[in-house]
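[recover] target loaded
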């Protein structure tokens, strides 16, 4: 069984080239999220696999920071609309914390690359134009404008104007790049007019302009000798950017287009991610609620063109259950549902793993910690005891005591608790949250049947030791059935007396997580 990343790497390894360059690119139009950064994660994984196959591979990330601002990104103020049409590279930082707009949105993204084990060489479109890297390609495009127009017109309903040029100068009057129209050139001098009414000339060597996108994309494939590039499905549409740029690359720049890896968009709670509407979730936000490997797992557990919807809310607990299971199967801590599933789990985790060969991390079940933390607070030793009492430790840890955890395991334990705390504070629905009412018995009404049930449960827990939540759960149901009391009513009584509310975590596990004497007294409605 091979993962799709491995299949791509093996296909590339058969090609006659001394070095593979896997390119990725992102428009710096606002916060970089898990949707538009897929290029980077996929490119890094392919490069890693190529190197494992003994091939030389370089992964680059090109910031499209010379493109025009088309929409004001969230959470910038509306008055930023005065910069619409201007290159990102010329727009000031919105908060004054960075040198410019680009750095403001790049910095958080680049700052977490090490955490995800991503090795990329950062390239800037703005710097490439300013340093003259594109100059020869601009000249070649201008000299071959007639053929480029023919290529474009094959895929257009309306043909381009006779005087159209594949280049957009930055207007020296209004500073915009998407409102200019280049109509003539003489050597390196471009003549243009702008919607603002200005007409002027510019020298391509100034860097104050850029090739139109599909020509620019083809040019940079040749510039960097790109052999593979992941990109969003919009570019992969029939007659879209990849198709057009591939022809331009071959016919105009004499370079075969790279191996394409298109991917489907990631939606957020069913909505398309949008920087302008504030609908996005960044790699940095992910690290606040989950380990880096879990994002890799999310991206690589299915094929790239399969639709993905992410939610950091309640369904995130289901996702973390899956990730925890896959990780434990990989480390042989748990059995897989089947042999086939086991092979699949291990292969996906192998791709998602950041440090190959790293030992089993200490990551107790995420969902269980949601409850354990709300009982014990940030007391790792107390949480560990709750985990142990509820059989939540896997075979490598179940016979250990808290003092047996090494420095790395303690750090991993704290990181997981911190992730849970951030999830509770930021995304958890109200019904998940609770607080044990330790100081006094909540004044909530109970029926006689509920009071009787609590008394019998108190007697049972006082007289018998329960080492498994399942055993206590079964015993509770025996009492309920004996009384003819509906389980919902019995559990509500427990939550009312301990939490001061009608709902809470799974009752048996919850009770075993609390101090036994406290539970017995509270079930008897004693102080």
């Amino acid at each position: 069984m091979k993962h799709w990343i491995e299949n791509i790497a093996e296909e590339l390894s058969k090609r006659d080239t001394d070095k593979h360059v896997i390119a990725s690119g992102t428009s710096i139009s606002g916060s970089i999220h898990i949707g538009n950064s897929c290029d980077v994660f996929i490119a890094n994984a392919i490069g890693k696999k190529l190197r494992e196959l003994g091939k030389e591979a370089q992964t680059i990330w090109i910031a499209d920071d010379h493109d025009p601002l088309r929409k004001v990104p969230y959470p910038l103020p509306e008055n930023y609309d005065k910069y619409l049409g201007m290159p990102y590279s010329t727009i000031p930082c919105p908060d004054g914390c960075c040198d410019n707009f680009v750095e403001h949105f790049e910095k958080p993204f680049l700052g977490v690359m090490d955490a995800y084990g991503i090795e990329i060489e950062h390239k800037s479109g703005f710097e490439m134009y300013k340093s003259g890297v594109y100059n020869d390609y601009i000249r070649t495009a201008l000299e071959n404008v007639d053929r480029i127009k023919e290529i474009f017109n094959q895929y257009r309903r309306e043909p381009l104007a006779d005087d159209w040029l594949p280049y957009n100068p930055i207007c020296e009057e209004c500073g915009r790049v998407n409102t200019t129209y280049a109509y003539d050139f003489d050597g390196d001098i471009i003549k243009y007019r702008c919607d603002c009414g200005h007409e002027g000339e510019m020298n391509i060597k100034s860097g104050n302009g850029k090739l139109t996108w599909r020509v620019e994309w083809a040019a940079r494939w040749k510039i960097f000798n790109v052999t593979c590039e992941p990109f969003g499905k919009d570019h992969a549409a029939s007659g879209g950017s990849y198709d057009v740029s591939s022809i331009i690359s071959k016919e105009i720049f004499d370079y075969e287009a790279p191996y394409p890896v298109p991917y489907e968009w990631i939606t957020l709670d069913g909505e398309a991610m949008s920087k302008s509407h504030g609908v996005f979730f960044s790699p940095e936000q992910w690290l606040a609620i989950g380990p880096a490997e879990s994002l890799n797992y999310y991206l690589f557990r299915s094929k790239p063109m399969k639709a993905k919807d992410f939610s950091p809310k309640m369904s995130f607990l289901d996702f973390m259950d899956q990730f925890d299971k896959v990780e434990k199967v990989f480390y042989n801590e748990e059995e897989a549902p089947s042999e086939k599933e086991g092979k699949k789990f291990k292969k996906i985790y192998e791709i998602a793993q950041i440090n190959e060969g790293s030992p089993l991390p200490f990551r107790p079940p995420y969902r269980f910690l949601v409850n354990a933390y709300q009982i014990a607070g940030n007391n790792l030793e107390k949480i560990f005891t709750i985990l142990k009492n509820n059989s939540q430790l896997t075979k490598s840890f179940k016979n250990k005591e808290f003092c047996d955890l090494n420095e790395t395991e303690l750090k991993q334990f704290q990181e997981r608790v911190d992730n849970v705390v951030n999830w509770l504070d930021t995304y958890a629905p109200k019904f998940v949250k609770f607080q044990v009412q330790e100081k006094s018995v909540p004044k909530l009404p109970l029926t006689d049947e509920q009071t009787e049930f609590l008394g019998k449960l108190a007697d049972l827990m006082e007289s018998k030791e329960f080492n498994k939540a399942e055993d206590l759960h079964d015993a509770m149901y025996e009492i309920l059935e004996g009384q003819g009391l509906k389980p919902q009513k019995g559990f509500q009584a427990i939550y009312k007396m301990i939490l001061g509310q009608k709902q809470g975590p799974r009752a048996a596990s919850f009770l075993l997580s609390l101090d036994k004497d406290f539970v017995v007294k509270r079930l008897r409605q004693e102080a």
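[recover] notes: Residues 407-426 form the longest helix (20 residues).
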